[in-house]
Amino acid sequence: MIAISDHKTGTRAPGAQQDDLLQKLGAICGKSNVLTGRQTSSYARDWRGQYPSHPLAVVRPGSTQEVSSILRLANEHGCPVVPLGGNTGLVGGTQTEGGLMVSLERMKRIRAIDPAGRTASVDAGVIVEEVNRAVERFGLRFPLAFGADGSAMIGGALSTNAGGANVLAFGMARALCLGLEVVLPDGRILDDMVALRKNNTGYDLKHLFIGAEGTLGLITGAVLTLTDLPTTYATALIGVNALDDGLKALGRLRRACGSQLEAFEVMPESYLKRLLGSQEAPNFPFPEVPVAAILVELASSSPVDCTPNDKGETPLIERLATELGDCIGTGVVTDAVIAHNAQQRAALWRLRDTAPELTKGLTPVVAADVSVPLDLIGEFEPSLQQSVRSMDPDALFWTVGHLGDGNLHIVVCTGDKSPEHMARVRNVIDETTMRFQGAFSAEHGVGIQKLESMSAFKSPVALDLMRGIKAVFDPNGIMNPGKVLPDRLPGAMHEK
Amino acid sequence: MIAISDHKTGTRAPGAQQDDLLQKLGAICGKSNVLTGRQTSSYARDWRGQYPSHPLAVVRPGSTQEVSSILRLANEHGCPVVPLGGNTGLVGGTQTEGGLMVSLERMKRIRAIDPAGRTASVDAGVIVEEVNRAVERFGLRFPLAFGADGSAMIGGALSTNAGGANVLAFGMARALCLGLEVVLPDGRILDDMVALRKNNTGYDLKHLFIGAEGTLGLITGAVLTLTDLPTTYATALIGVNALDDGLKALGRLRRACGSQLEAFEVMPESYLKRLLGSQEAPNFPFPEVPVAAILVELASSSPVDCTPNDKGETPLIERLATELGDCIGTGVVTDAVIAHNAQQRAALWRLRDTAPELTKGLTPVVAADVSVPLDLIGEFEPSLQQSVRSMDPDALFWTVGHLGDGNLHIVVCTGDKSPEHMARVRNVIDETTMRFQGAFSAEHGVGIQKLESMSAFKSPVALDLMRGIKAVFDPNGIMNPGKVLPDRLPGAMHEK
Fold first, then answer.
1. Assign residue B484 a region: left if phi > 0, alpha if psi is -120 to 50, beta otherwise?
2. Which residue in A200, A331, B135, B424 has the fewest CB atoms around it within 10 Å?
3. Any idea where the FAD-binding PCMH-type domain is (chains A, B) (predicted)?
4. CB–CB contact B302 A196 (8 Å)
């Protein structure tokens, strides 16, 4: 299981090479920060337990300089390196057999906060939620909100270009990063920790590392952009007769509310039926299950928006009520309820946030995360459902997601749990997505889970350029090997 | 002057090689679209006439396929290729001696508009303003606003990652692009024309081409994001006693108005004095010249914001008046006037938009375009002025720019116009900018103008990675050679 190559370490036995490497790692960051054997078990298990690892060791550097020494050493030994943040990924991006896991858990420093420029400069090991706690006192927030943000670290959120519910207003993790510090596999440090909103000085290298899932270098620091902390929310659940009606409501709300519209989360009928049939079925506010329910949320930091009138309604709630009233008047929306307090808001969000629990007792399932252009999503969802059912009539199928981003998470609980059948179902999802000009990974990334999709559907020209870049940044191939980039096909058809 | 290498075309004389190349170009896109000699003169002159070119020919392809054939041919002949959009750049990014200029002026197709998804798919030869004309009827706009947007083409705006006055609300050109079509130097077409807001399927290659100034490939198409067309504006001029006070007003306005705040343009005293002393001095609304005047603009597409009250004031104007009134009350702002109609709004913008005319009769001048972190800009501006004056006490010096982005355009009209002295002045600007953790090019790019700054101030690690990427994408070095990437220093100190 040990993947250390011996072409640089001479003729010693593998065991001696390992001991040598571990000893040198201990010298770099202290013996207590080099974990082996059973000590690695909590790191070796990913969030969902789908991609167990057997690392050579877990090393916990305390500084960028230590990361640099570790990578230089690993590079000399030809030892695979797997960067490890909160380990909350869903696609096997940290899986390893014999590689060195580099955990950033000790690199948790908030380096600087600039309230005027609305930036925070942080170590990559800082947890997403901790950034928010650090900047809250300035009336600011880091507006990246996703299920795992209480565990996920900034380095991982950037390496996977995390998305979530607020992408509609603020973009993916990529859009929230101004600068990076990255250690390259040979130990060199790329210091691009700039807090600049305009910076046209050559190729924008940070965008290569963001979303590269640790295959090009190890992110050790980042300069993040911040936005105002909302002081008030207006949250509603609406029902629509078609996803295209949802898009009409989206257009109207955006025109009226601009970037105050922070979430537009869709729960199609397939999801609602599963949700309401589950054991802990939450209260559902509409008499009937609509074709889709959509969770709409406005947020504002403006003092004028948060002062309630004598009925206890804020101007923000009034604005939402007016717009939704008009949507109902024109028949675009069939039902609507607005939360009037934090408890009601939480109850509406629970409908959406229960999504991960719905697969309990059903695993393994085929879980996909796709996006399509917005004008096609209304046709895509039923078409996908039909394609899946035509090959597996008994499958449980539901979708839930971020309508404003054209992003649906798909769950198919197949009757036949054989890997072959499940692979066929995944392939049907991918093929349908590609037919609708979509992406087979919207926000979860490739990892090892979607390597076959990369081989099948990514443009050969893009793959060729990606491989060229990989060879420049990581000539020895030590950085998170086997992720993102599929092996070349037999016959190397994309070779020049 | 002819830069065709002969290592691939054998032993024929250069003249014969040229004739051969021109004939083949004519066969690809029609003889009338291959211009030589005097026919090239309007293409060979850049906007400001600072970087005259002597191209082998100007070729005007009509399709991506023709661009592909042209690049493949040029690559085989080792002939430099210079992509040409509206030719409005300021840094010599299209300068060539003997290269083939590929003008995109015939590629002007709006390929598709998705009003629901708010995207437009266009040829790279479409002029920025034309995108706006095409999407206006859907109540949408492409919110990239800069001086040359009536001439600049989408391909050039993306290749240079154009900025401008609305970056504060919408980001640079990079942030407004979802997908690209690029022809690589060997003629292969990278088709990444996706209209997806979430797309995590490997390295995000489009961000390499955006801002690469045509050195990695030739952009032939793009999918752009659109935003709502404002139906009403509220525009004001404010005076402040310090740039840091301007930042306080910025923070307050953002909290109150979110992304409705679209412009926050700063005109420091140095600029105002030059402006008001010029021949066509516009009316200035304040009794005295403040330390800085700032043009503030809110925009809204919300129907409720544009209905005027009985005094003719829209709710948007009332909001701005309230916030500025409070700023005056707390002493952050010293003076303020609000435009109450389109004419008054235009008059305020004229104060800012006159900037390019102020160098009339003074050229050559040292013109720089830098950015610094926002919390340092209040100290940076006077410090820079002092540094320049200490080496050239008689120089005319002014700055003007985008305060919300930390971006200042600097003009120094030196007494001594020798290239050596002007280079020293530029160097002082660069050094001061770097001392304040800034960028020596905020939005204009590198071209050939800032090659020395790249050599002196860009991280050697970044330069090394950029050169590696260039070698992968353009192994024969035909794409816009001599731009962006400085030659290696004698002794190749960055070589491994």
1. left
2. A331
3. 51-229
4. no
CA distances to A64, A192, A232, A257 from A131, rounded to whole Å, are: 19, 20, 20, 27
Tell me phi and psi for residue B479, to 5 degrees: -80, 110
Burial A459-476 (b: 16+ CB within 10 A, else e): bebbbbbbbbbbebbbeb
pLDDT of residue B320 exceeding 80, the answer is yes
B3 touches chain A (CB under 8 A): no
- Give the CATH number, domain containing residue B136: 3.30.465.10
What are the tens digits of pLDDT across the range B252-294?
Answer: 999 999 999 999 999 999 999 999 998 778 899 999 999 999 9
Residue by residue, DSSP assigns A325-363 as HHHHHTTS-SEEEE--SHHHHHHHHHHHHTGGGGGTTT-
A177 Cα distance to chain centroid: 15
- The verdict on a CB contact (< 8 Å) between A175 and B175 is yes
Q: What is the structure's pLDDT at B492?
A: 40
CATH label of the domain that carries residue B44:
3.30.43.10
DSSP state of B488: P
The token pair that represents A311 in the structure block: 């009925």
Q: Is residue B461 situated within a structural domain?
A: no
List the structure tokens of B125.
């030869």
Q: Is A211 on the interface with B (CB under 8 A)?
A: yes
Joined together, the tokens standing for residue A281 give 């079925």
Q: Provide, rounded to the nearest whole percent, the portion of chain A with pLDDT above 70.
A: 96
Same domain? For A190 and A264 the reply is no
* CB within 8 Å: B117 and A374: yes
Assign residue A404 the CATH number of its domain.
3.30.70.2740
Determine the 3-state secondary structure of B4 from DSSP: coil
> Is residue A345 located within the same domain as residue A429?
no
Closest by Cβ to A198, choosing from B163, B203, B446: B163
pLDDT lower than 70: segments of chain A: 1-13, 489-496
For residues A368 and A445, the answer to whether their CB atoms sit within 8 Å is no
Tokens of B419: 């290239």
CB contact under 8 Å between B199 and A256, yes or no, is: no
* Of residues B151, B41, B24, the one with CA closest to residue B89: B151
Helix (H, G, I), strand (E, B) or coil at A294: strand
In a domain, A494, yes or no: no
Parent domain of A338: 232-355
At residue A8, the pLDDT reads 43
* Sequence-ordered alpha helix ranges (H) in B243-332: 243-257, 269-277, 315-329
Total tally of structural domains belonging to chain A: 4
Q: Are residues A117 and A189 in the same domain?
A: yes
Q: Nearest Cα to A410, choosing from A425, A424, A423?
A: A425
Residue B481 domain-assigned (yes or no): no
Angle at B366 between CA B364 and CA B371, to 5 degrees: 150
Same domain, yes or no: A304 and A331: yes
pLDDT recorded at residue B10: 42
Cα-trace Rg, chain A: 24
Q: Determine the Cα–Cα distance for residues A165 and B481; give it in Å rounded to an integer.
A: 43
Domain boundary among B87, B103, B119: B103
Domain finish residue from B178, B197, B228: B228
Residue A174 near residue A435, CB atoms below 8 Å: no
- Do B191 and A441 lie within an 8 Å CB cutoff? no
Q: Which residues of A touch B204 (CB under 8 A)?
A: 161, 174, 207-208, 210-211
A interface test, pick of B198, B262, B330, B377 with most A CB neighbours within 10 Å = B198
Is A466 an 8 Å CB contact of chain B? yes
